[in-house]
Amino acid sequence: MSVGTGAFSSVEAERGVEVNVVDDDEAYLGLTTDPENGTFLQIKNQFAGNLSLSVGVEVEEPSDEFEAEISEEGGKIQVKIESKGENESGAKSEENVSIPLGQETYVTTDCVGAGTIDLEFTFSGTVDDSGTTVDKTRTFTVDCPPEATESESFEAQNTVSGVTFESGNSKIRINLTESASNGSQFTVTVYYENGSAVESKTEENIPGNETLKLNQDFGGPNNGKRIVGVGIDGIDGVFDRGSIQESGNPGKTVNTTVLLENASFQDQLSDSS
Asked: Mean pLDDT in each 10-residue stretch from start to end of the chain (273 residues)?
């Protein structure tokens, strides 16, 4: 993925203000890509107040074949790229999000088989109480992985070699076997501590061999909750962090599954999980 061409950007305020042109990551509305951490785009509020922002997206090329739909859940934005139906216009899709002072939100993408797609994003917002407004248009490129052929598809138990509980408590990695396709994706449930209870989040189309974050990839809380277990559809059991002999070193991997009824955190599961 790469930053493409920029378009018009502006900032307006009720009082006179001097504006210097800076890179997107240093601007009041900070925009950065972070593909290594599985994030397509990070949006950071660097204004002096809470920001109410409208984010719009549409496919630039090939707009006659695909369209982009934007959605928001728990402060995280997802852009889904899919084939356009005969009666669908492919018009810009928009969503509103509130970003507190000094905080950020994330944009992820969900697409398969669309090839290389240029997405035009528009950002239009107002800073609470100050009347400051911002308008920015940027084009970013996303590479959608090819659809797996029948010969490339594997059962989960033949594809996953283990789960690594990475440093930072709320990050994991699903490790793939050498024979697995790099485009392998799974339906994954993560179990995480929330006070004295354990809660869970389930998401589809989770990739292997990538660092996954509780808040960005599973819509979990954004405060470093500890992931204690991982379940993967197609595998009879759960990867239990409690089966690791903790030694204080990061990057601990569970290569064998422990059935859920024997998981160390089972008694802590909340009714909502």
From this structure: 39 41 69 68 89 91 77 85 72 88 87 81 90 89 69 61 87 86 85 90 90 91 89 86 63 67 72 55
Task: Please indicate, yes or no, whether residues 168 and 122 belong to a single structural domain of this protein.
Answer: no
- Residue 256 and residue 163 share a domain: yes
For residues 7 and 94, membership in a common domain is answered with: yes
For residue 151, CA distances in Å to 120, 154, 234 come to: 35, 8, 18
- Please state, in angstroms and as integers, the Cα–Cα distance from residue 219 to each residue in 52, 105, 171, 203, 254, following that order: 20, 11, 13, 9, 23
pTM for the whole structure: 0.50
Domain count within the chain: 2
Compute how many other C-beta atoms are within 10 angstroms of the C-beta atom of residue 272: 8
Listed residue (205, 204, 218) closest to 171, CA to CA: 218
Cβ atoms of 188 and 232 within 8 Å: the answer is yes
> Does 118 share its domain with 45?
yes
Instruction: Give yes or no: residues 86 and 169 share one domain.
Output: no
